[in-house]
Amino acid sequence: MKIVSRNEELLREALSCIPQPSSRASLASCNKLIRFEDISAAAFKIQSGVQKTPCMYSRLSKQYGMDIYLKKEFLQYTGSVKERGVLYLLMSLPQEQQRKGVIVASDSNFSMAVAYHASELRVPVFVIVCASTAPARVRTCRDYGAMVISYGATAKDSQLHARRLAQENGYLYLEEEDSAVYLSGLGTVGLEVYEQVPKLDAVIFPAGGHCGMLAGSAAALKHLNPHISVIGVESESFPVLQQSLKAGHPTDDQACNNHHFYGDVSGVCFGSNSLQLTGKLVDKVVAVREEDILISMLRLLEYERATIDAEGAIGLAALVAGKLPELKGKRVAVVICSGNLELHLLQQCIARALTLDNRVCRFSLVISDCPGDMSKLLEILAREEARVLDIKQERTFVTSELFTVQVICTVETRDKIHTAQLRNALLERYPTTAWTER
């Protein structure tokens, strides 16, 4: 099927005033017009190296009153959409540079994608990490085939060391930026979503500092159908993209250095190409709370059996938070771009999300320290079908009358309504029951 563009002028206008790239020690590429043909060429070239991930109808649709299709980019080999841009970038390098090798300096999804695909292409690859990098990430990069070197106490130390090694040995220092080649690779997500879901009304992408997928995919989608709404979602704690769009240039707020939980969406806005495309082609950018992101992660785990990190869940969080009421009854695709949630965060995120979702609650009450009183409390909990997660008794520091015991109980309920029913039943029997507010 041949698709005729009606948006070339819009794309041309979006990039007409982009300045030429500064002399950086990374990939030296010209900022040129990102055409639909470039994105199509990228899709053809990388098709054998990345997954064409499914875009599936979700059971969450009924809960939020719209047809939701989830584009599952976390199913890529390294668990991230960054593979698309990285593979096209590496395949576009001159053969001489491929022979010499490339070097990166971070433990991000971008670096893991470089480690894997460079190894697959038989390009020597070096990953420089700082001492605080999680051992699991170091092991993963080594398993992909990269030479991993730990250097320095901070990310800045490892970056300086990587640049020095690149200069001394002829390696190409790669960092995530918005060259036309990289954006074209990321834009293939938009192509696939359009092919997989007919009659789309809107597509939701993660935004934030590294908004290359949002910008590249917007270019593809607006070319194919200008009526499709393209929406970006970022965190209220790090509204990097909104600040940059308002200022008219990428912000350099030091407070936005990558937050461990948020990943790339909390980073500094990295380029004018992405920013200009986003400003011209993206219909809306909204911000969501951390609480909404955590509940979104919980919904994806329960309904899709998918362990997703904050970056991957932030698009769905806009629907969870009710930030896009205009999409009710519409057909909406949500890009789940990353699933690299570290294990030590998984338990914390789930526990916090259950509390925020009113499904784990804690209360304390005082009962007589007599045989049978504890069993009466447990009978009430059993009758109300509350699952006891933890129960403690405090006798020594109770300030009420003698021969009483304070009981602190943590229980799991079905939902907010069930929690309210349990609360009323306990207050009827124990009027002094105190609930711990979340």
From TrEMBL:
CDD domains: ACT_ThrD-II-like (cd04886), Thr-dehyd (cd01562). PROSITE patterns: ACT. Keywords: Lyase, Pyridoxal phosphate. Gene3D superfamilies: 3.40.50.1100. GO terms for biological process: isoleucine biosynthetic process; L-serine catabolic process; L-threonine catabolic process. Its cofactor is pyridoxal 5'-phosphate. This is L-serine deaminase. It comes from Hippolais icterina (icterine warbler).
